[in-house]
TrEMBL record:
Zn(2+) binds at residues 129, 132, 149, 152. One of its GO terms (molecular function) is metal ion binding. It is an enzyme of class 2 (transferase). InterPro entries: DHS-like_NAD/FAD-binding_dom (IPR029035), NAD-dep_sirtuin_deacylases (IPR050134), Sirtuin (IPR003000), Sirtuin_cat_small_dom_sf (IPR026591), Ssirtuin_cat_dom (IPR026590). SUPFAM superfamilies: DHS-like NAD/FAD-binding domain. The keyword Ubl conjugation does not apply. This is protein acetyllysine N-acetyltransferase. Keywords: Metal-binding, NAD, Transferase, Zinc. Residues 9-228 form the Deacetylase sirtuin-type domain. It comes from Alicyclobacillus mengziensis. Its EC number is 2.3.1.286.
Length: 228
């Protein structure tokens, strides 16, 4: 375990010393997960879509077995995600120009204005062609029952990594962790490999703060630029 690992739960946990160390960080990195987007009204993994829990929809079995059925459900899932908007946690990370490594597929960090974002599980607002690499807006799935690549006509893959598929950008994420002088772990328990290894990639002494709940309340306080 990293020596300067601190868990923050309440506003009162945020001391003046913590605020100062955060304010002076030159290379702040945040690893974010589902808890970061909780206040944005997204569907949860246990929620049912067409009688199937959302988690099963992401496990890839439906996509592999039946593209038409997959995209029927995908349209419903996508419409739910398209209604979600960034909450104060996303906005605070964007304003502080934090480097963001996210496990979320909702695209809300980019919409909030974060420019340096690694979406390691992809983005549900995109579709990808496995054959030629083309990236399309997911709107194409709203126009066609089974969206195909406009270039090579291959059936498009959702812009997210389904279970069993390789996560993306992990070498750059590891590079960012190694350069970080502050790491925030927000709304995630980091159970999943390989993100679970990222805190270990930080240099010795790098302060690590874990915020599991109330990110939308704590991050705006933690990342404020000016302190009174
Ligand atoms: Zn293609």
């Amino acid at each position: 375990m990293h020596t300067s690992h601190t868990t923050l739960k309440y506003k009162k946990d945020i001391t003046k010393e913590i605020l100062e160390s955060i304010q002076h960080a030159q290379f702040p990195v945040a690893i974010t997960g589902a808890g970061t987007s909780k206040a944005s009204g997204l569907p949860l993994l246990g929620d049912m879509i067409d009688g199937v829990p959302l988690s099963q929809f992401f496990d890839g079995s439906i996509f592999r077995a039946d593209k038409e059925r997959f995209y029927d459900s995908y349209r419903k899932v996508l419409r739910l995600f398209l209604q979600a908007t960034p909450n104060p946690a996303h906005l605070a990370l964007a304003e502080r120009e934090t480097f963001v490594i996210t496990q979320n597929i909702d695209g809300l960090h980019r919409i909030a204005g974060s420019e340096r974002v690694l979406e390691i599980h992809g983005n549900i607002r995109e579709l990808r062609c496995i054959n030629c690499g083309l990236v399309e807006s997911s709107m194409r799935a709203l126009r066609y029952p089974v969206p195909r690549c406009p270039d090579c006509h291959e059936v498009l893959h959702p812009g997210i990594t389904l279970e069993g598929e390789e996560v993306r950008h992990i070498s750059r994420a590891t590079d960012w962790a190694g350069r970080a002088d502050l790491m925030l772990i927000v709304g995630t328990q980091l159970f999943a490999h390989p993100v679970s290894k990222l805190p270990e990639a930080t240099r010795a002494g790098t302060p690590i703060f874990e915020i599991n709940e109330n990110a939308e309340v704590l991050l705006p306080v933690l990342l404020q630029q000016e302190h009174s």
